[in-house]
Amino acid sequence: VGSGRVGGTLGRVWANAGHQVMFSSLDLEHDRKLAADVGPNASAGAPREAARFGDVLVVSVPYHALPAVGKDLGELLKGKIVLDTSNPIESRDGEIVKWAMEKGAGLASAELLPGARIVRAFNAVGYMRMAEAAKSQPRMGMPIAGDDPKAIAVVSGLVRDIGYEPVLVGSLAFGRHLTPRQPLAGERSPEEIRKIAATLK
Description:
43% helix; two-stranded parallel ribbon; 201 residues; alpha/beta
């Protein structure tokens, strides 16, 4: 849900890795063109179609749109693994940012997407780097945060398919650290991520 720079890039890499991907956004024509460009493992549909289609639902929208995603997808989110890449950014997202930052981005997302099994990842690395990560050796780390062990395991596999090594930094409450301009932002080795994460509360 959300096929812009981050969602579009992730979907393309996963499709190239052999996963079946459905792009969805508020612009179905854009999604159809993107799917046609990506190839046979990609399709396009409305957000509700994507929510039904996927074993994992990637939500990659401006943070101010998350309440609408939660409302529109409603029951379809219950029990679904949701990979949350969205960040509250003051210059873009307005009033919701203060609340989300105080609560923490991970816990705020869980409240806005009730019933979803949320794992935060891909929150503070540029989308262009995501497209190139598989070429990097040794692998860079990708900090992730979540509460559901099975969801974390599934997302960890998807992170590896992009070309990163997943590093669980903590529970969903630690999702507040997975935003731009925080100590974990940017690309680092798994060891560096673990060292930084150990200093966070």
